[in-house]
Each structure stands twice: as C-alpha cells, then as structure tokens.
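Summary of Year 1 activities. Much of the first year was spent building the evaluation harness for sequence design. The harness presents a backbone, in tokenized form, and records the residue chosen at every position. We chose the following record to illustrate the format because it has been used consistently in internal testing since the harness was completed.
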C-alpha cells in the first residue's frame, strides 16, 4: 500500500509541484522510523500525535489541491468530474486514513505490500498473456510452483537451485 502512496507522492511533488506531497513523504518516513525504533508499533499517544499531523497535512493539501469546480446545470456531460492525479491521491489518503496509517499501530501490518505484489505479479502476467488458465487444476499447479519459488527466494535459495532440488526429489533445508 504505502509503496504506491510514496511513488504517487513523489510524482505529485516533482511533476505537479505539490508541496504538501513532500511533507507527507517526510511524515510517513518519520512515522516508519519511529515504528522501527519502537519495535513495530507506536504507543497510543504517539500514534494520535502522528494522526493529527497527518490530518493537518491533508487540510493543507485541500487548500493547495482543491477539488474541481462543480458542474453547471447547463453542462451536458454526466458523471464525476475529472480530477488530477494529485487530487485523486489526496482523496484516497483522506478516505483511507485508517488503512494508510495502520502500520504504525499494528505490528503485523508492514509499511509496504511489495512482497504481496511481487508474489501475485506472475499470476497476473500469465492471465494477461493467456487471458485465463485452461483449468482450475492448472491454476492451482501454477500457484503452487510460484509459492514454492517465492518461499525459496525468501530463504536465500535461488530458483535454479530450488527447481534442481525439486526434480532430484530433495527439498531445501529450511523446509525439513
């Protein structure tokens, strides 16, 4: 989650000139630093302090990046007005504050979801190329293999070594 937010905040700051985005990056990195230094979760009073700072930055962002003006009754177009990428990000950060800041109060929630994204990327790529799996069994086998390789990689066993061991009927030491 946060990795996407940080990338989008960098874009908002560098490409769209949004000063609030740089301040938000600094705040999130400061929170993360304190979370690590305190062993994975902040005490409630410190979390409340950061939450207030977060909301203050969002209020500043509302001024710097206002919503588009409402449609006039004479407009023929229907639907939601187009918003800038910065505005969309701002609305997501405001609407999903609890989810965005959950990493600072819940030990089991990581700052980024990069590992989850990496684990699912090959499955999405396979679906994009082929359109779908031919059978449920094929999808299950694909996921089982990807899971095995991902687990091996996380335990410092290369994919080549992992597959070689598998075809030789052996398992890596960390599984035994």
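For this record, the design step produced the sequence shown next.
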């Amino acid at each position: 989650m946060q990795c996407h937010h940080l990338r989008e905040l960098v874009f908002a700051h560098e490409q769209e000139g949004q000063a609030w985005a740089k301040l938000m990056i600094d705040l999130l990195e400061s929170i993360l630093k304190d979370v690590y230094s305190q062993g994975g979760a902040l005490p409630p009073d410190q979390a409340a302090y950061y939450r207030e700072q977060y909301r203050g930055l969002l209020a500043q962002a509302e001024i710097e990046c206002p919503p588009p003006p409402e449609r006039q009754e004479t407009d023929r177009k229907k639907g939601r007005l187009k918003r800038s990428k910065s505005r969309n990000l701002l609305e997501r950060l405001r609407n999903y504050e609890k989810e965005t800041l959950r990493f600072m109060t819940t030990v089991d929630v990581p700052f980024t979801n990069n590992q989850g994204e990496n684990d699912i990327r090959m499955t999405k790529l396979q679906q994009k190329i082929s359109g779908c799996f031919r059978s449920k069994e094929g999808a299950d086998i694909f996921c089982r293999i990807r899971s095995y390789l991902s687990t091996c990689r996380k335990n410092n066993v290369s994919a080549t070594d992992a597959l070689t061991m598998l075809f030789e009927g052996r398992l890596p030491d960390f599984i035994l």
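The mean pLDDT is 86. Quantitative recovery figures across the full test set are reported in Table 2.
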